[in-house]
Amino acid sequence: MLSNEELAQILHAAVQAPSGHNAQPWDFGWDGMTLFVRAVYGKDRSVFNYLERGTVLAVGGVVESIGIFAPTIGFKSSVRYVYDPRRGPTIAEITFSPTTPEKNSARVDALFARTTNRKQYAKKEVAEDIKDHLQQAALFAGHTELVFIDSPVQMKLVARASTQMETFMLKVPALREAMFTHVVWDDAEEARVREGMFVKTLELTPPAFAAFKAFTHMPFVATLAGFLGMGSRIAAENAMRYASAGACGLIAISDMTERTLFELGRSLLRVWITATEHGLALQPIGGVIFLAARAREEVPSLFSQKIAQSFIVADDSLGALFKIPDGMRPGLLFRCGYADAPSARSSKKSPIVEYAKRGTLS
Q1: H or E stretch including 189?
Q2: What gap in Å lies between CA 158 and CA 154, rounded to an integer?
Q3: Which of 116, 183, 288, 347 is deepest in the core (most CB within 10 A)?
Q4: Does pTM top 0.90 for this prediction?
């Protein structure tokens, strides 16, 4: 049985998982035998989190973090996926059994060191053996598969498709809100709230920082800038940055069900930690994939027909560029490579845990 100290160690590792806008949409229940890993619906309100798909993905990362850390303190974790929206927010139940402690400090160090790096990446290829390790890390139950592109010409096309959101973000209120309302502006606020997107992690130049702040606090300025073509300029600048990476990777998935998205979250965490172990920087850049899924399914659509179609075309282009296997679809896009350390990283909140008697949680 886990002691309170061991449980606290495991949960501290668990909340190192990534989440959209660093929303950390999870909490936990513990009845002395089983750990209930739960979604907190509504915590991530961004336009990307349609049907709480990003929340389920984030919880997958939490579960994988637990699986990586627990053996180092002498416990094997057994995961049971139980998500059923009719039963409540629990996505997975985890039990623990004693085992010989593993000496895998490098992997655990990578778990805690993992962070988003939005710096300019060096134009240096990622070695084939490293890409092989990342591809092996991504495989999960036949539902996920990682494909790479490292041709400069193709990476430019990938970068252009991935930045379709930026083209419209200043014109569309929902996209503008997703970009600007989750920002944490200074060190004091970051230390206090410990969630949200810390502005220093965005690696903005001073002029870009001034514009970003104006767009956040004066929406009419953002709208005007959008109609003057500022969104297209931002998209072009981001595309140039993304295309300079050592490689672009796409984790393809079999479908958009909650179970597969949960596994995608576990897959991403494995890939990210493996990349960190190899000294690679990594940044997810695939928001357009989630926008395309929303554009295909939502009726009535949040987007105009023109904008919805642009997201769908970009998503289809990514699938074609990466030549993903038949029967699979784009799941998550990232760039990776070699870069200086990021200027800052976003903080994590302490885990929220409900303690209860055995049999009273579900």
Answers
A1: helix 187-193
A2: 6
A3: 288
A4: yes
